[in-house]
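Each lists sequence, tokenised fold; shown next:
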Amino acid sequence: MTDMEAYIWDLDGTLIDSYHCIVSSLVNVADECHLTDSYNSIMKTVKQGAVSTYLRDLSARCGKDFDILLRRYREISHAKEDEIGLIPGALETLQGLRPAQHFVYTHRGSSTANLLNRLGLTGFFREIVTFEYGFRPKPSGEGVTYLVEKYNLPKNATAYVGDRTLDIYCAKDAGVHAILYLPDDSCVIPAGSEDRIIRHLEELL
């Protein structure tokens, strides 16, 4: 791969270690619907799809509106955000990749800025694109394309880094390099169109 001039980062499972918070919150939502889904089965659904994938399935099974379930999930997960830490090597990798430009494109919402500030990451990023921007969700590359066009980033020297195949499709839709962070314990199956697969973030250095 060409030396990258810009990195656009996914957050959950890529830079921040948040899946326990996400999945345990979904377990709580399912419990409130009087349904018992195992932690591992929810984890697999979220990693191979998205939070919305699981909540739409839950909505169909319990009869509650998807938007109500999503709002409840956000309330519960927001209360657990103090449990979230950094993925091993995240800080060192961001520091070591300077002077490349860094951005975030995440499906997270309004709590993103406070979370990144608490974790000491805010200063690394020129812009943090969240759910509130209103772009079509991944696998659409709208959010990445917005950053590429706004900052005139060269597509052949820009990479989107994420931990799910959804992120790979997003990168390809935007026409940038796709890097899959695939730690050894991941249940994600590579899409086959990745430009690079890494097991540890420090491999980017």
Observations:
- The longest strand covers residues 101-105.
- Residues 15 and 175 are 22 Å apart (CA to CA).
- The first helix runs from residue 19 to 32.
